[in-house]
Amino acid sequence: MLGITALRRDHAVAPTGYSRWLIPPAALAVHLSIGQVYATSVYRTSLVEHFDASQTAIGVIFSIAIVMLGLSAAIGGTWVENNGPRRAMFASACFWAGGFLVGALGIATSQLWLVYLGYGFLGGIGLGLGYISPVSTLIKWFPDRPGLATGLAIMGFGGGALVATPLSGQLMALYDPQYVAGQSGSVASGGALVGLFATLGVVYFVLMMVGVAVVRVPPAGWRPAGFDPAKLRAAPMITTANVSANNAIRTPQFWLLWVVLFTNVTAGIGILEQASPMIQDFFREGGVSAVAPAAAGGFVGLLSIFNMAGRFVWSSTSDVIGRKPIYMLYLGLGMVLYVLLALFGHVSVALFVLFACVILSFYGGGFATIPAYLRDMFGTYQVGAIHGRLLTAWSAAGIAGPTIVNTFLDAEGEPGTLTYDAYTLPLLTMVGILAVGFVANLLVRPVAARFHEPEPAASGAGAGKEAE
Amino acid sequence: MTDQEPRPERRTEPMADEVSGDGQDGTETTGIAPRYRVLLVVAWTLVALLLGYGVVNIVITASQLFTG
């Protein structure tokens, strides 16, 4: 009972002597855990063998998780906003860890539907709640540097796969001595998969609970020393007013930003999904690729590093140059890089890797900067809930990006026989998609005053709800 | 009592008491209580170790890209 009380927002107000620099590691504890969702390829083949199922049937687990991420972030955003980061992180930890444990039960009993229910459905809810849970709190603690703060946290989502990929391989090798991590054709036993899922469930629950214990909300009226809100008022694209989540979705700005995120993610996911076969296809001559499968795996890892680093570097940069200009960079320079990749990517491996890595850094930057852009447009009042609703763009892009690329590639020939010219059309299509996002970003203007929370009502309502 | 997020107000001027006098200065370490200072070091070290573990492993794998 005491534990449940401690989760309440009014019990999570920062005490004297607390440092706001504890919030990013608390947020990272959650994001590094849920970022594991990008490391599912490590045990995908083992799951295929264990269930004697198709790649598609196993891929559905990941798809359910990503769809549930978008839905739970959109539906649960207001709940997260109202209940504070502690309760939201705790709920996320329960769903995420519970998902692993139910998934482990599904593997142990060879019931694939239990893995769908566990890792896919329950885990997906944990993903959505966990992803948005620290965002609003970070923005309130860092009104002077929201891009840096959210970049640090969302960097963890990219970094989660970096940690989970080698960890999963090593755990499977521990539980199944016959399994060799990273060796092509090596498959872990069902028992090793059960051990892996159970261990990850427990480890991630503990790590996320560290975040729950550390996170705090700032006292009412708190602001960092040296921070002058008047400077915010001087910036035309940063509001000091507040817009509720229900009103935000009625504004053109919300939908323009939805398009911006959708196009940026669609283009990036198109490369991310195809990264390993793509680099092999680009350097295939006479039916043989100059890039070995193991090296292609290294390329995927390199993309993960740039995806993670871009989240921090570009989002922090947006605090200096502004949110609209940074998205012009992501989308505008992104278009140029996609053209260069399509036309000159096959010239050398180094050039190909360079273009792809910068593109992926923009992909990550787009994710990490969007909460700060929302804060600039809609204020801090319900920015977490608004962010949750905007993440439906991610779910939509997760379907659109791979579908576009795969449709083109399927028409070009069989996997393993393609060459670089098969990618020209899909990559140039991505340029067109980015152009749509670029125009949408250009059209973003400050939100009309009629959508703002009315001042007298806000004051009155606030007085009635001052519980802290 | 409710734990609902208080509605915000639009401010016309900074509140005089907004910068807390208890040393909650986010940009400096002078006002941080000793136990939170220790927690800061532990938390960031843990983060650095986790990310370092991941990056080192990936870089080892990625090096095959250029070494064949």
UniProtKB/TrEMBL annotation, chain A:
<keyword id="KW-0472">Membrane</keyword>
<keyword id="KW-0812">Transmembrane</keyword>
<feature type="transmembrane region" description="Helical">
    <location>
        <begin position="292"/>
        <end position="314"/>
    </location>
</feature>
<dbReference type="Pfam" id="PF07690">
    <property type="entry name" value="MFS_1"/>
</dbReference>
<dbReference type="GO" id="GO:0022857">
    <property type="term" value="F:transmembrane transporter activity"/>
</dbReference>
<dbReference type="InterPro" id="IPR011701">
    <property type="entry name" value="MFS"/>
</dbReference>
<feature type="transmembrane region" description="Helical">
    <location>
        <begin position="326"/>
        <end position="344"/>
    </location>
</feature>
<dbReference type="InterPro" id="IPR050327">
    <property type="entry name" value="Proton-linked_MCT"/>
</dbReference>
<dbReference type="InterPro" id="IPR036259">
    <property type="entry name" value="MFS_trans_sf"/>
</dbReference>
<feature type="transmembrane region" description="Helical">
    <location>
        <begin position="254"/>
        <end position="272"/>
    </location>
</feature>
<feature type="transmembrane region" description="Helical">
    <location>
        <begin position="187"/>
        <end position="215"/>
    </location>
</feature>
<feature type="domain" description="Major facilitator superfamily (MFS) profile">
    <location>
        <begin position="1"/>
        <end position="449"/>
    </location>
</feature>
<feature type="transmembrane region" description="Helical">
    <location>
        <begin position="425"/>
        <end position="444"/>
    </location>
</feature>
<feature type="transmembrane region" description="Helical">
    <location>
        <begin position="113"/>
        <end position="135"/>
    </location>
</feature>
<feature type="transmembrane region" description="Helical">
    <location>
        <begin position="386"/>
        <end position="405"/>
    </location>
</feature>
<feature type="transmembrane region" description="Helical">
    <location>
        <begin position="88"/>
        <end position="107"/>
    </location>
</feature>
<feature type="transmembrane region" description="Helical">
    <location>
        <begin position="55"/>
        <end position="76"/>
    </location>
</feature>
<dbReference type="GO" id="GO:0005886">
    <property type="term" value="C:plasma membrane"/>
</dbReference>
<feature type="transmembrane region" description="Helical">
    <location>
        <begin position="147"/>
        <end position="167"/>
    </location>
</feature>
<feature type="transmembrane region" description="Helical">
    <location>
        <begin position="350"/>
        <end position="374"/>
    </location>
</feature>
<feature type="transmembrane region" description="Helical">
    <location>
        <begin position="21"/>
        <end position="43"/>
    </location>
</feature>
<keyword id="KW-1133">Transmembrane helix</keyword>
TrEMBL record, chain B:
<keyword id="KW-0472">Membrane</keyword>
<keyword id="KW-0812">Transmembrane</keyword>
<protein>
    <submittedName>
        <fullName>Uncharacterized protein</fullName>
    </submittedName>
</protein>
<feature type="region of interest" description="Disordered">
    <location>
        <begin position="1"/>
        <end position="30"/>
    </location>
</feature>
<feature type="transmembrane region" description="Helical">
    <location>
        <begin position="38"/>
        <end position="60"/>
    </location>
</feature>
<keyword id="KW-1133">Transmembrane helix</keyword>
<feature type="compositionally biased region" description="Basic and acidic residues">
    <location>
        <begin position="1"/>
        <end position="14"/>
    </location>
</feature>
